[in-house]
Design goal:
mainly alpha; single chain; 206 residues
Amino acid sequence: MNQSPLVILFAAVLTNNIVFSGFLGMCSFIALSKRIDTAIGMGLAVTFVSTFTTALNWLIYHYILKTGALYKLTGIEGLDGEIFTLIVFIAVIAAFVQIVELAIARISQSLYQALGIFLPLITVNCAILGVSLFMVIRGYGFLASIAFGFGSGIGWLLAIFLMAGIRQKLRFSKISPSLEGIGITMITTGILAMIFMVFNGMVRMN
């Protein structure tokens, strides 16, 4: 039974949060959750890229790759295979990341400097790529895929925003020296993941 785009959107944000349920995109999630402003900027960039690349990858997959149009046109073996699909998805993501990077550099140099190397690394962010791959594996339609891409981005934004808020509060807390830095961050991530498990009974994605 096909689920509605609204259900998929809700599930992607809460019950199947890409960070706390799938544990994808953890590298930039941990590294850029020290400040709320940086976390929001990165979260919005991830949401933008996730939404539009999912839509583009759906169109490319269903109308070009899945139909074998490239193989029929060129006769080259492998252009309709899974590995080539993966390469195409990454190329689409890389193109959109370049657009986002140029836009942020023009709009806010301070945010551009704060995001640093992690902005171009959205290209290989496993959360972004995972959304496109899940879209194919689960057989979502076009609107459902857009809802999934947008919801996953919002879910990632929500996760990093919560973490940034907590980490800023932790600066004024007494923490054991052995847990400072990555230790307390990973513990906090685990606790947040358990909190998000409360939503699991509400709705699940197919």
